[in-house]
Design goal:
The protein is mainly alpha-helical and 157 residues long. The protein has six helices and two strands, in the order ααααββαα. The protein has a single domain, classed as Orthogonal Bundle (Arc Repressor Mutant, subunit A), CATH 1.10.10.10. Helix 2 crosses helix 4.
């Protein structure tokens, strides 16, 4: 049996959860503004970022990441391809599939998004705190991903 967290840990967790909620909302606004500037949809920007961080991404992986159907991702990839943001290349591991890669314009679009986040982070947090934050958020993300993979649906973690 685990012991209950001390009140200060519980308070700090509540503050962190609240901050994460607002960061998620603010991030959605950053993505929407970036998308509007690029003339694409917010989900397209999310797709571009995923492609920038996922070598050998396939439409299936992209669909799973975005929570979309494969049909919806086909339309999304068609839009990005037509706009010049991504390219399709044959998948060497599956002849029925393709690998999605960013073009130079796609990379530039992702860099626009990342630039906004970098500016906010470096304005708000000094380098040492930023390194600590990166480690903490990575550990939190990894733990959350593990819990979502292993916990039965509908049960508290």
């Amino acid at each position: 049996m685990t012991s209950a967290p001390d009140p200060s840990q519980a308070d700090n967790a509540a503050i962190a959860i609240r901050a994460l909620h607002y960061i998620q909302s603010d991030s959605a606004q950053v993505i929407a503004r970036t998308a509007a500037g690029l003339g694409i949809a917010a989900v397209d920007v999310r797709a571009l970022y995923f492609l920038s961080t996922t070598p050998d991404a396939t439409p299936k992986l992209l669909a799973e990441h975005l929570g979309l159907t494969t049909g919806a991702v086909t339309s999304l990839v068609d839009r990005l391809h037509t706009a010049g943001y991504c390219a399709r290349t044959p998948n060497p591991d599956d002849r029925r599939s393709v690998v999605l890669e960013l073009t130079a314009d796609g990379t530039a679009a992702v860099n626009t998004l990342i630039g906004g986040y970098n500016a906010a982070l470096t304005r708000a947090i000094d380098a040492e705190q930023l390194a600590d934050l990166a480690r903490s958020l990575t550990a939190f993300r990894n733990t959350l991903a593990e819990i979502t993979r292993t916990a039965p649906a509908g049960e508290p973690t």
